[in-house]
Amino acid sequence: MTREDSSKVTRRSTRFSSSLTNDNPEPNPSHPPTVADLTSGQESITLDALLSSFPGRRSQILDLIRLIGPLDSPALPVMVYGDASTGKTSVALQVFKHLNRPFVYSSCRTCCTPRLFFESILNQLLLHSKCSSNGYASAKRCDKPSDFVNLLKEALSGVVETLGSAKLERKLMGKMVYLIVDHVDLIKEWDKGAMILQFLFGLYSVLKMPQLGIILISGLPPDVYYSNMGYTDPIPVYFPEYSEEELRQIFLKSQVNKKLYSAFLDVALRPFCRVTRRVEELSTSLSSLFRKYCEPLDDLSISPNEDLKRRLYSNLRPHITSCLNEVFRVSGRPRDGDTRGERRQKASYSSEKGEELEVLDFHMSTSAKYLLIAAFLASRNPATLDASMFDSTGGMDNRKRKRKASEKSMEKKEMAEQEAVMKGPGSFPLERLLAIFQCIASVGDSSLGEEEDEEGEEEATGYDKESNNMMSDILLQVASLCDANFMIKSGSCPLEGSIRYRSMVSEDLSLKVARSLSFPLSKYLYRR
Amino acid sequence: MGKENPAEKALNLIRGRLCDPTFVFRPLSGPPDSNYSKLKFIVSTSITEGCNNSILLLGPRGSGKAAVLDLVVGDLMEEYPDSVTLIRLNGLLHSEDNCAFKEIARQLCMEHHLLFSKMASFDENSQFIIAMLRECGLAHKTIIFVLDEFDMFAQASGKQRLLYSLLDAMQSVTSQAVVVGISSRLDADQLLEKRVRSRFSHRKILFLPPSREEIDSLLEHLLSLPADSSFPSGYVTQFNEKIKNITSDTRFKDMLKTFLNANSTVNSLLKFIFRAVSSMNLESGLLSLENFKTALSSMLRQPKLEAVRDCSILELYLLVCMRRLEVKEQSSYNFISVMKEYKTIHDSFQTSDFYAQNVCLRAFEHLREREVICYAENRGQSQAGEYRPMKLLISASELHQGMRSHACCPAILLKLLDH
After folding, report:
1. Nearest residue of chain B to residue A327 (CA atoms)
2. Helices (H) and strands (E) in chain A — how many of each?
3. Closest-CA residue of chain A to B4
4. Do B371 and A210 touch (CB under 8 A)?
5. Which residue of B has its CA nearest to A328?
6. How far apart are CA B29 and CA B37, in angstroms?
7. C-beta of residue A492 within 8 angstroms of C-beta of residue A499
């Protein structure tokens, strides 16, 4: 039987690459990879160390260890499932570190096509590492499940033979190899994903090799994978979200001053847990809040008494609410030492104290900002009102006499409102956008002149008076706004022939942009 | 060390048995009118009398069709050592014709120690296969083709070329071949084209779920330790005694009935026993009823309930708002309308949980990732995520139950759900 040669990929070398000299140090060739490398390689940890490093996961860890079973015991496929950041991957890998058994790990997030996925598993089993000497190619080329099954059988029998025969100085590793596949739920989005999923779930019965143990890690529960092609379900192990008590233990684990942090958690953890219980999101918001909590303290290693705790809490309390509304946001600006932002906030448009006025935290050119506002207005206002909105007086006359609304018209208004909410922002042709843009740009021009003696705005207010010469630039700006997803191209009507756009910005963002330009946006918004 | 070893050995032995389908299905092949004997009769007559045959094995997934076939083939290979060749194909892997022919040629080459070239074209492969069929027929050797996931072969490319060529070759060339199709679709033969169906003998063997007596004998067969010298004899009798006690307990019978009501195939029973056996207490070395109870509760999961129980309080608020919108008979709603409902609840009840829009949007995304809610239509790609219509993927009763068993659900939410 002819064996397949490792694929020799002939690469075209560009002038640039051939002129480069190879500077990176090669992986040490005197250390060829052995089967022992399939284990995690470091000292194995005891069960107690494992259990204490994952608070709240005791029953799941013991479950998983029992399902994997003692040395050389055949196992049925297992599926570990749970929400994001519940510790599934880390627990699985640490369990294997504790058990010191050879395993092969492949994640469907990094290997995003079937070919990458199959080849990564085969590379690990064949102890092949990609380096420049073999041109960073895989050991075998494999993109179909049928080839994968054959090659996997060969590779596995090779590994099992080495495990069985070789004398290993370290502890026994057993004769079984385990396959860990992470992020199985991402396979659904692949091309022909349903087929690959079916194949993966049936891999154990297709291979018929008792020396392979399969562990699947998925972010979605098993009922998502039911398909009309039938489904052989693996044994499920569920990782629930952490409770508050467990979250406390997790956050306390890595802290230096446990008493201080635990006092902090007493007041801060509960309100945050009402919003989200995911560890990654909580840790970012809690760390910034903890910095604020420790601000009045000089010595960070003291353990607080009751009086100190109360004072620190009262200092922190106003910040908790504001932090809660920013739970999922990662601030773009560095928090410490930036007092400029605070000054700007104080000097901003509205004078209400309690309101949180936010400033735009990314930079846009002035014409882009006007375009954004024009797009927002075009999406929100019905086209028939344009003439009255943008007439020379520069604003809608709000002092219309209002008739007393009858009940039927109120109902109709409600229905219309509901429909408007469901439909979302409307679409507009390019000409309308440009017309509105020209109107408001001229308005903004005049209003900018009045406020020039405000405190020195560092933003470039270099909006030229020669707006008529900038039409091509404006069209470029439209294209870049589309790329940044502030506007999207809607379908075009074949009768009209022009492309229609739709604005995607929220009202908050457009208010922020308008505020930075000192543009009276609310006067131009049509409210039903 | 002394007490641990027999327990671990017993555990390994039982786990090995559960993972080995041929061991599991052997007792089911005893009685004379079982599927095993029917299948064996058909295949062995075609071997001895040198004729062609085709047969379908049908039954729900996990009822042991492939295992019984393996048993039959294994036995026949022993009885007629040199006159049986086995070719295995799987519909998941080889549904494309090129792939299938290449695989058949490869396996034939392996069996007969010929050189196989990967570069052979489709025509070369098919000619090779037909030539091999003729040769084997002349030499009185039977080739058994096993087509797993038969319905995928029938559905794959629409032309069913592989099936047609195989069945056609069997009829026209002097060959001795048996084609065995395995499928979990009970109407697999309806999927065949007319020309294929006319060449197919409509023999079907149905695999039904096992009866109570079969299950009881299966349990005993799987769980009793053999009284051989590798185990201390006192331990063996103790273990088997405990097994008998457990299986005759009414609570165990109830548990088994509950489990089999949900899924009555043999494979799921094996998984249940595997789970129970894995949690065996290694110090005492004996199984107990508790093991089976924990196995039952972990196998019969309710994922949507767990998803609701895992929600944070803000996410529960959003779910309740969506439910209330549904009750108000608003046929379609999106994130903005849910936010409006959220605001009205906050205004009328003065709840303490009122968060900004971006926080709620992110909580909404969490719910969507967990597949508790989803977009109502797929085509609305041109709309922002907040305006696309959504729908709930859990029913009202599941939501209710989940919230009641939630660790810290505020009472006001339950009240809101009811009104």
Report:
1. B359
2. 20, 8
3. A70
4. no
5. B359
6. 7
7. yes
Q: Cα–Cα distance between B203 and B201 in angstroms, integer?
A: 6
Q: Which of A60, A166, A148, A74 is nearest to A106 (CA)?
A: A148
User: What DSSP string runs through B217-233?
Assistant: HHHHHHHPPP-STTS-H
Alpha-carbon distance A345 to A334, whole Å? 16
Residue A221, phi then psi, degrees to nearest 5? -70, 160
Do residues B100 and B164 lie in contact, with contact meaning Cβ atoms separated by under 8 Å? no
The number of beta carbons lying within 10 Å of the beta carbon of residue A506 is 17
Find all residues with CB under 8 Å of A241, minimum gap 6, and list them: A82, A83, A86, A277, A278, B310
The torsion of the CA quartet A181, A186, A188, A192, rounded to 10 degrees, works out to -70
d(CA B265, CA A503): 55
Residues in chain A closer than 8 A to B97 (CB atoms): none
Nearest C-alpha neighbor of B336 from the set B328, B325, B347, B327? B325
CA of B242: how far to CAs of A247, A341, B5, B245, in Å?
42, 74, 19, 5
- Pick the residue of B1, B4, B17, B19 with the most A CBs within 10 A to test the interface with A by mutation: B19
* Cβ within 8 Å, pair B16-A210: yes
For chain B, the residue count is 419
pLDDT by 10s per residue, chain A, length 528: 334 443 444 556 566 655 555 444 444 444 566 666 677 666 778 888 888 888 888 989 999 999 998 888 888 999 999 988 888 999 999 998 888 888 999 999 998 889 999 999 998 888 888 877 777 788 888 888 888 998 999 998 888 888 877 665 455 677 888 999 999 999 988 888 888 888 899 888 888 888 899 999 999 888 888 876 667 788 889 998 888 888 888 888 878 888 888 888 888 888 888 888 888 888 888 888 888 888 877 777 777 778 888 888 888 887 887 777 777 666 555 544 434 444 444 433 333 333 445 677 778 888 888 888 888 888 888 878 777 777 655 444 554 545 666 778 888 887 877 777 777 788 888 888 888 888 888 776 655 444 444 433 433 344 444 455 556 788 888 888 888 888 888 766 667 667 788 888 888 888 888 888 888 888 888 775
Per residue in A235-282, pLDDT (tens digit) is 889 998 888 888 888 888 878 888 888 888 888 888 888 888 888 888
- Chain B CB contacts of A280 under 8 Å are none
How far A248 CA lies from chain B's nearest CA (Å)?
16
Q: Radius of gyration (Cα) for chain B, nearest Å?
A: 29
Q: How many residues does chain A have?
A: 528
**Unique residue bearing structure tokens 């020209």:** A438
Interchain pair A195, B383: CB under 8 A: no
Please give the backbone phi and psi of residue B164, each rounded to the nearest 5 degrees, phi first. Answer: -65, -45
d(CA A348, CA A359): 9
Interface of B with A in 141-160 (CB under 8 A): 148
Long-range contacts of A310-313 (CB under 8 A, 24+ apart): A312/A263, A312/A264, A313/A267
Task: State how far the alpha carbon of B321 is from the alpha carbons of A158, B23, B35, B327, B401, in Å.
Answer: 58, 54, 55, 10, 16
Q: A485 to chain B: nearest residue by CA?
A: B384
Q: What angle do CA A430, A432, A438 make, to 5 degrees?
A: 105
Q: Does B134 touch chain A (CB under 8 A)?
A: no
Q: Do A422 and B382 touch (CB under 8 A)?
A: no
Q: What is the ipTM of this complex?
A: 0.88
Q: Would you call B337 and A418 a contact, using CB atoms and an 8 Å cutoff?
A: yes
In one-letter notation, the amino acid at residue B197 is: R
Partner residue facing B103 (CB), from A146, A198, A278:
A146
Contacts of B358 in chain A (CB under 8 A): 325, 328-329
Residue A408: partners with Cβ closer than 8 Å, 6 or more residues away: none
